[in-house]
Amino acid sequence: TSMAASMISRHVAVIGAGAAGLVASRELRREGHRVVVFERESRVGGTWVYTPSTEPDPLGTDPGRALVHSSLYKSLRTNLPREVMGFGDYPFLPRADGSGDPRRYPGHEEVLAYLEDFAREFGLEEMVRFEKEIVGVGMVEEGGKWKVKWRMRDGGGGGSREEEVFDAVVVCNGHFTEPRIAEIPGVDLWPGKQMHSHNYRTPEPFQDLVVVLIGSAASAVDISRDIAKVAKEVHVASRSYEGETLGIQPDYNNLWLHPMIEKAHEDGKVTFLDGSSVGADVILHCTGYKYHFPFLETNGIVSVDDNRVGPLYKHVFPPVLAPWLSFVGLPWKVIPFPQFEYQSKWIAGALSGRIDLPSEEEMMEDVKDFYSKLEAAGTPKRYTHNLANSQFEYNDWLAGQTGSQPSEEWRKKMYSDSSRKRRTGPETYRDEGEDETLVSQAHEDFAKQPLHR
Length: 453
What we know:
Layout: H1 3-6, E1 11-15, H2 19-30, E2 34-38, H3 82-85, H4 108-121, E3 128-129, E4 132-139, E5 146-152, E6 161-166, E7 168-171, E8 178-179, E9 193-196, E10 210-214, H5 218-228, E11 233-237, E12 247-248, E13 255-258, E14 261-264, E15 269-272, E16 277-279, E17 282-285, E18 289-290, E19 296-297, E20 303-305, E21 308-310, E22 325-327, H6 336-352, H7 360-376, H8 391-402, H9 409-424, H10 436-447
Parallel strand pairs: 1-2, 1-7, 2-3, 4-19, 7-22, 9-17, 10-11, 10-17, 11-13
Antiparallel strand pairs: 4-5, 5-6, 8-18, 12-13, 14-15, 15-16, 20-21
Helix pairs in contact: 2-6, 6-8, 9-10
């Protein structure tokens, strides 16, 4: 029989219609599966849908709070050049008619427009059921199928609940919604206001205030500079400041870098590990997010422990439940969209039977081996899915499994150049001149694509 005839078509639920859910649905349908995408909001784009609204609990620790999914702030621009960001066969190019934001590091609206164009180009919206919030995903006792339960988010009548049975579930619900909070000794008696960057949108509320901002990743760098325009003082407390100048920051008269906070005091003071202190109005936690799957019921087979989702084979399949349960988009410090695409092709092929996964035992062995390597290297558990140093190796492994093109050399080089420029010039790297050779190599590759934009 031909390959196509022997491939099995499955009934697959995809949770979330952000970048991961969109490309997963496309790959699943290309592979011949019947796909339903469940999306809590009324449009595609996930984390890239900006909303000025924030949660009532600014720290985001109240489990019963009304959720806002996105963590975008108004001034956010990409921290990667657009050429590297796009899906393999749908380049993220400036629009031909000159509309939108043509910059190489565009604002968030441009990324959302790209995802909407991608959904339109491939007819993905017809698979999406909007305003459906997943409340349960669990195994059906007999026959190894999955029951998916959801409720309408129409606000009327408490949201009616419905359910449907699927062969497989692909989890694409994102990981930038559930805040991780820094533990600060004495903070319960400290009189100021605390919030997490999940609820940061614009600098205006910080006018003339003294702000202590915790964190050192991309959003901390951007938000501290955003707020410094209006705040009286901004004090950044960071665990990882090696090689950076502590104290007042170049080109600023109101922005300081400190080591970590030692303690917060009842009189409003915050002291740092180097002995310095400041009377602060606000502590802003730019301390990242937790993986959160409140709907997932696997009887303990899959759990989140210190931000490790496990056990997962190659960050995607729980060995015991493979290929029927899978996750797209868990790794961080990566170029997200192309990686989602590689993972999705692998999942789609494993479900149709075109791609063989190792046995459950072999996958479990691989996972244990991976975890003990991390431990031997002294890598904290919460960095399990940090692929900063191995994303291309990982993508190329997936490409090998799926018979797709590995990462292009220009993409790797452009990524590392961009990361280096970001470290040395956080204010200016987005608007510096580019490496023309790499950009033209990218455009040569894009020209081979039959499509788009």
